[in-house]
Design goal:
mainly alpha; 61% helix; elongated; transport; MrpF/PhaF-like; transmembrane helix; membrane; transmembrane
Amino acid sequence: MVLLTAAALLALARIALGPSILDRAISLDVLVAVAIAGLGTFAAFHRDPGPLPILLVLSLVGFVGSVSVARFVARRVPPRTGHPDDPGSTTGTPPGAGGPGDQDGGRHG
């Protein structure tokens, strides 16, 4: 229990100090995992199956929270436009790759 308490305190410190949303999300995930481990330890020590539904709900909340944060962060990255003037564009057909005007499928020679 001492190690779980130390892990929870370190996770709380990272939540408070984390410079990015990903640091805070991982810390919250660790905090949920510590709560699950603590509740599981309690249930095993006392041989009580009562906390098992709570463990199930906590694991579901942790999973859904992690996926939600990952999707939120993925959407924050600005999409590339695909416009020819956009130097970072990865859309379109590179030269010699068999585009619509390429009659021999990119084989020149």
